[in-house]
Amino acid sequence: MNFLYSRARKGRRPSIFHSCGQQPALSHWTLGYGNTGSCTSSITFMDGEKGILRYRGIPVEELAEKATFKETAYLLINGRLPNRDELTRFSVLLNDNSLVHEDLRTFYERFPRSSHPMGILSSMVNALRSFYPELQNLEEEINMTVTRLLSKIRTLAAMSYKISRGHKVVYPRPDLAYCANFLNMMFDSPVKPLRD
To answer: Which residues, other chains included, contact 33 with Cβ-Cβ below 8 Å and sequence gap of 6+?
Structure first.
């Protein structure tokens, strides 16, 4: 990978031009993003100075008012909002893939109790590849892998939070929707059950 650095504008970090394969790309690094660079994307458009944020061309305000979390996730993955049948299939996939391999608990148990939950979570996402290696280059399989990751990430995040606090892990429930399931896994407790 070749890198070229541009001169920084006043008060900004330099841009980095790099080549991935055949297409040159531009990344702009700022302190506000931490270790993440901004770039041109067909998924997200953001102009902070004008207050514009769009996902796949749809203003985020419109999505917040009219779309559910699952509809927005489907939009980001597939490039369009789902119809009723597609949303139902997507919801079933999210539910069916919410469990994680029980051997992942061994990884969690080896982290120091003082580890930050985000550090644990990022390591666990990388570990998923060892448990689910069937990703191929076909677009349908890539979409399935992204959907599986979206489903498992809430379970992994809740496990990271619970284990970092020494609490009992709460597993996903098939009767709860995506966001309700996440909240239940995060905050349900044997001594203070989370209300449905």
So the answer is: none
